[in-house]
Amino acid sequence: MRKVAIVGAGMTKFVRRALETPKELAYEATKTALDSCDLRLEDIDCVAHGSAPDAFDGIHQKGEYLADGCGGWNKPTMRVYVGGGTGVHAIIHGWHHIASGMFDTCLVVCEEKMSSAMPHAQGFFLTIFDAITERSLHPNLLWIFALEMNRYMQRYGYTKEDMALVAVNNKRNGLKNPASQFKDEVTVEDVLNSEIMAYPVSRLDVSPVSDGAAAIVLAAEPVARRLTDKPIWIEGVGWTLDTAYWGTRDLYYPRYLDKAARMAYEMAGIREPAKQINIAEPYDPFGYKALHHMEGLQLSPRGKTVELLRDGHFALDGNLPMCPSGGLLGVGNPIAAAGTMKVCELFWQLRGEAGERQVPGNPRLGVAQAWGDLMQVSSVVVVGN
Amino acid sequence: MQEKVHVSGGTALSEQDVHSGEIFMTEDSLDCAFAWDTGVAINRYLTELKNGRIIATECRHCNRIMLPPRLFCELCFKPSSGWVYINDTGVVNTFSICHVHWDASRIKEGEKPYLPAVIEIDGASAGMGIMQLLGEVEPEKIKFGMKVKAVWKPENERTGSITDIKYFKPI
Questions:
Q1: CB atoms within 10 A of CB A175
Q2: What ipTM score was computed for the predicted complex, to two decimals?
Q3: Low-confidence residues of chain A, pLDDT below 50?
Q4: Which of A9, A146, A249 sits opposite B98 (nearest CB)?
Q5: A352 touching chain B per CB within 8 A
């Protein structure tokens, strides 16, 4: 397998409702990523693009519609589609294209426009539940998160206040991100006093509905070295899918992530991730989910994660900064684009280009993760400078 | 070296922009209808629910009693070994008290919250939970590990659906 580097990155602002069409959003992110490494579309061999449910846009087979905006015209183009896991999974596809020796350069572009769905994108999540054994109970996606969060809290004796600390941490980081859709800091009290949607989930425990796109440029080693003196290497990739019988596994531990993380670390030669990883971007659509995923990523001992969070271990200047970008809670959550945004963030952080939110101490290794489908899929990418 | 631009585009629209008449929108509404065949295993499951019983499948290879029942065991990928009746009682593994409908609209004043739970049914292998609703219980009195029993619809109202169980109530 050949070594693969990230050589460029770009994204749009994440907003509640964008003037741009999905294709225009994808173009903005793609063009920004190309410009960042002084490449033109003709320098790109192939495209891996991603978008999550077609239903949000009401455009069936959205990949084909979107391809132009991703620079996919007349190129080998492949869409990735694993729900919330898409944003990191698409990067793994791009990595395959180059590591295999097939191509030298690849654009990875993920986009989501959730605002078109009326009255609310949430309604479409009904259709991910099993049509016969679950859907007639009229579930919404909050149920599954609330059931998981409650079980996680009960297993380790955590409180709603403990979980609220994540929103506070991530939203604080997000205020330093020029792509963020938020302007205000929130406190633990704000989170606890926000509307209870599905106990124990309150409104500010949840990431918003967003429109946006994010893109990176991948290159094979010799090309990467020619393009930049600061390539960021993809050192490990991992992904797994757990069973769709989600009620069958105990929800307090993200088993779907355990194997994906170990696979990525093994490839990267990382034996002690909690000591070796300098920056973590766990998937954080809900506050507790970031902590849940830190445990699945083997970056925090099970049941000790709140303690570490309270001790400042995961703060921007802590030993292992968590979601320095602000994450989904602090930047926004245009589903597929949010995962790619996490890898854009690691790219900028490891090059020392993250501005106000730069993690100190010349971080060397970062891990990004996204999760999706019916509590099932996890994709992990380890990058290093 | 000149700092590269990281962020471009993503023009936020406000409510005012949307209502101003200067931003145009095209609207459409889809009305999709489906009728799903319930399959070899679940058809038997639903037939037994209509009879007021819960049936599971067994995998003798993995030593599991599987609920919902299935044609094959996803672990060893062998066909299920046979059918087993199990109880209509179980234990609450986790639960929620939900104040929003499936489409994110809020429940109205006086309307009861949804009480979804993962229930481990007695007789199925440990950890084989199914999603069901709780009922006849004050939300604040729901406990982890609480023992519950199915409350069935009257026989003449059952249709061969998971909703033939109205909910599970504490025992």
A1: 17
A2: 0.93
A3: none
A4: A146
A5: no
